[in-house]
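So, can you check this one?
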Amino acid sequence: MKRASNAFLQFNYVPYPLWRRQMPGWLKAITHPIINRTLAADADLNPPETLEAMAAYLAQWGLVDKNAAIDGLSTSIETVNPLDPAPYTGNGTIRLPAQWEQLETVLLTWPSLYPPLWEQHAQMAEAIAPVARVTICVRSALWANAARLFLEKRGKIALDQIRFLVLPTDDIWVRDYGPIVGLDANGEQVCIKAIFDPLPNYPQEQDNAMALRWAAHEEIPVRKLDLHIEGGNIWSDGAGTLIVSEQVYFSNPGLTYDALTEKMRSVFDFQKLIVTPRLEREETGHVDLLVKLADAQTVLISQANVLLNSGKLRAAIALFRQSTNAAGQPYRVFELPTPPLYLNWGLWPVWRSYTNALTVNGRVLVPVFGVETDEKALAVYREALPAFEIIPIDCWIGANGGGAVHCLTKEIPAAH
């Protein structure tokens, strides 16, 4: 259903805790009370403390009827303790499986702070649950029960496929700070921990610790990667090819292609590294907002049909038309429509991309934005991946935070 606008200037909900950025004390003292009255500000740090208060919160934001909420908010929830994970003691490098290989579970961080995003996260969980376990991370057991009740009332998901973990984070973009899990030579899971600190003016300590805490809880050993890189900026075909964007050079000043390749090869098992252009006026710089690796020989790329970034997009398309994967096979390139950039509240450029999709056990969850190009994008996916079930996920609100389906999920491959 067409709901969104392609107007250049828009005034949409911002799913990002801007009030936590560093600012003068006097300014925070003025703005914070206003924000707290109009948004769910600090609801994760200072959540409702009783069943009745949580029921009132759910009713306030139209998530669950207040009279129906209280009885469903008292289930015991699994808690992740702040333990140190075991270091990986193996000698070989780690293979990063392709996303289309068998997945064990998919991680989500529940958007407690952002009531308008509960619908989007529910859609993702409901699309994943029939084919893989869904692991939902929350700040407290009460939030887990609130999310469980919300999903239960929707009636579209088997709750035995949902695992809740009390594992606090600073924000919802689990793709970037979550565990990068690969397999060693024996097919056992290994967690790769890179350095996560892309926004120095914003609290990220809990996000940076999330992968280590999760790995310790799951008893998965950890191997450190001395590189500033987020999970949204790495694709793997599982067969020797890794793809990143030029953002790695911005995140690691002074790093050359040879130095980058050497650092990556110290941990990952691969033979070929492809570096794509970095989009302009797109805050993350991540490759998943430019390219979707569909299979070892197929990539989907945003069309160069917009004024901004047309040169970058043409360069990316040419790169893959001229490149081969590690096995020497040429790529099939499918071009996806590119919705135009817009400014939210006149300040934040929003780049919407259909490449920000998740492949999970025979399904592909594709973001849609309520615009006229949605159906064309879905048709391209069906043509490129005829053996997969293509499922649209409404991301018109989430896009205002800088990402969509892929940015809000983190897959964990199954051990062999």
Q: What stands out?
A: The chain has one domain: 103-413. The domain at 103-413 is CATH 3.75.10.10 (L-arginine/glycine Amidinotransferase; Chain A).
